[in-house]
Amino acid sequence: MPDSVNKDDDGNEGLVFAVDLGGTHLRSSTVSKDGKIHHRRKQQTPRAAKAEEIVHAITRAAREFEELGKVDGRCIRAVSVAVPGTVNVDEGVIVKAPNLPSLEKYPLCAELTSQLNLPCVLENDANAAAIGEVWRGAARQHKTIVCLTLGTGVGGGIILDGKLWRGVEGAAAEIGHMCVDPFGGVACTCGSQGCLEVYASATAIVRMARNGRADHPDSILNNCNELTAERVHKGGAAGDELALEVFQRMGIYLGIGIANLINLLDPEMIVIGGGVANAWSLFETHMRQQVVERAFSRLAAHINIARAECGDDAGLLGAARLAFDRMS
Amino acid sequence: MPDSVNKDDDGNEGLVFAVDLGGTHLRSSTVSKDGKIHHRRKQQTPRAAKAEEIVHAITRAAREFEELGKVDGRCIRAVSVAVPGTVNVDEGVIVKAPNLPSLEKYPLCAELTSQLNLPCVLENDANAAAIGEVWRGAARQHKTIVCLTLGTGVGGGIILDGKLWRGVEGAAAEIGHMCVDPFGGVACTCGSQGCLEVYASATAIVRMARNGRADHPDSILNNCNELTAERVHKGGAAGDELALEVFQRMGIYLGIGIANLINLLDPEMIVIGGGVANAWSLFETHMRQQVVERAFSRLAAHINIARAECGDDAGLLGAARLAFDRMS
To answer: What is the dihedral sign for C-alpha A82, A83, A89, A91?
Structure first.
């Protein structure tokens, strides 16, 4: 078999070992320059872990992928890690990560480079997801987008004219902490109240459903032992009134937030990903209604608001792409 | 007298003829490359004017300045116009300008170039003000700022890493139309409700004062024939309770908006200009309180929030600077 079958379109055989390090799961993969994921792995993030244990889990996965790469005739050229927190990209250090406190201030890139003998890139996970969606997802061929990731929290990534906007302290695009109801009385973990996150995250969906149960004694959500955003979604899909109300409320606040983003940044596209986006059909109308009512009509008429397409791979792909860009 | 006394620091003798074309006033000046304003003029914008009348007013001013420039030994090298509307910068055309409807879609730059035989630059006035504040005002030596202009409306300019962010349709930085109270019931001229503009503009100050008079029969604002934002300011400075309440409310909403800008863009600095900023001491505490409560604490600790320093010249200076940049 000729070597060429294993080569990328551009003849580059290098791979990036990309890691999406969440508070719950550590997902890793090897990605080639054409955006293909070659091998992947999903494991639990070591619980209450010291930084060293997390590094060990990453390096062990890297070495397994290295062996697999040898079979394919491809080398890992860099490691790239997406993390749920604020990152000092230049120094490769996590500044703030509430879900991974042991990694705060820890020289993660330096340690991975030392142990794996590979250059290392570190990025915020929602930023990486935005890059992933531009590279291989819903925003292909777009240069100016805002990407929202509706998960446990609400993350954001802002790409302006092809470049990630990170802010001067590396903390930009905290779209989940844009205030959309300053006096509504719902407190946010950030210390403020009325943030988008308290209406559009999975956590918010569960809270709103739980709080609504007393008013909806017939709701099928009263029969759940453990209420999850997915169950509320299923309830809504089955026509449950409480579930539909929850996603209506969520859609309204999401639309208010998106209208703000449109009036502030005038992007080409808004991309919405994360687990909660699976309930798209339940909140889409309410979200779009707010955008029509609140964004400048000329912009509302042009804006493309669409679901993300990379699913759980957005962060991995974005991390990989950032490493390829750094190497080129 | 040697020629050199009239030369700029860099020896360049060229001037930009800068125009700040408002719905009420047409302000114009000549500006040299060191940011010095040489001559200035303020006149009424021709009322209910056809585009041609506005062009005529501009070209007449330009020719007067040309004569004055000859005395100083300086030539006008370009014309640059700041306008209250959305601009297609590349084509030099105003896309949308509610206060200057006759200029919508009119080829203003082409016409000025044809009549004055000078290259022409067109920019949104709030964008120009942001550039002016970075060049010669409060944001000197800063590269990433958001500038709010609190006038009849609320304008905004976003400068990221030294570059104006205009958005893909030229309509970015509409900070006055960020929603800060979606269900508060105050309608905005843009069609939405609860926009920052309905709480932080001069128009809003007057509306809030007027609406509050019944509850404050002793307020000195009850004795005004014509209520203006300036009178409310003076009332507050004299300790009038209604006026103080109005600026408290304004400061709270302004702070909510600024906290959003900080969490979204993570800038170095927020600059606040326009006539309403003269009441700074009446709203500052309330504004800062919201920023502390709502912005990420790490960012709130660093952010520099300050009054603009260029006053009414911000737009003229910014327009001039954009023309110098274009010529270099």
So the answer is: negative
